[in-house]
Amino acid sequence: MRRLLLAAAMLGTVSAAHAADMPDLPILRGGITDGLSKTSHNWDGFYVGGNAGYTTDASDFSQSVVGLTNFIFRDSVLQQPTSTWSLMNKTNTQGVNFGGFIGRNWQWYDAILSLEGTYTYFNNLATSTSGSNSLMIVNPAGETRPPGITNNYGVTLTGTAAAQVKDMITLRGRMGWDGGGFMPYMFAGAAVGRMDVSRTVTSNVTLRQDSTVTDAFGNVITVIGATNPVPAQSQTQSQHRTNTFAVGWTAGLGLEYCIWDGLFARVEYEYVRFSPVMNTQVTLNNARLGLGYKF
């Protein structure tokens, strides 16, 4: 047994001496893990590109003719009650878009910040609607009437409205992450759209004055009066603006993929909401595919 232990000790001493003489291989120092680490991509620099995609347009015409009805019924007891009417509905349309972008990336380690300008042209992104509403307005607030008189205003409004978004520019700030050959990003910024907007309303107003009297026997009797037109408030008003500008804001998400050297592809979703133009609110949802080059 003593001989076996002595032989094992001698073998261990020889093995340790042999290991000390071996070359210092990187694999023995954990160097193989460097090959498994992520290779960072250089996204820093100026870039430019073009894109094309699909747009859905949601236009809210519910309050489009309010400005016109306020003008028709100005200085009238009918202005306040008619200003709350929702004469028309929201409508939707779809179309294709084309455009380009130019920007600058600044990269710190895996974080990427960008400032980007875009231009988008919309192909026939137009929508329109019409509607009407009728209501009997009895003794409207603010009216002075003789005792026993009830004024019954019959008001009918008929309107049409249309909007076409022609093109748009945006200035967007982006925040991305270096995923090697991929860069997911999100963005937000300001948008300015160019559009044609029109609206028309026709009002038809009648007045019936009913009187309440008491006869000789103390009975209260209501006498229905004749219905007469009110010409001053029965009219048509129209308004049309061509190439008017609407400001708004934009936000969305995207993903870029480096195809080769500075050439990259991108896919993104963009939401745009413009401020109302002639009481017409337009909202866009854009989906795009693009190709660009980073210098």
Automatic annotation (TrEMBL):
Occurrences of domain Outer membrane protein beta-barrel (ranges): 7-295
GO cellular component: cell outer membrane
Main location group: membrane
UniProt entry keywords in alphabetical sequence: Cell outer membrane, Membrane, Signal
InterPro entries documented for this protein: Beta-barrel_OMP (IPR027385), OMP-like (IPR051692), OMP/PagP_B-barrel (IPR011250)
Keyword ATP-binding in annotation: no
Signal peptide (residue range): 1-19
Localization, UniProt: Cell outer membrane
Family: Belongs to the Omp25/RopB family.
Record protein name field: Opacity protein-like surface antigen
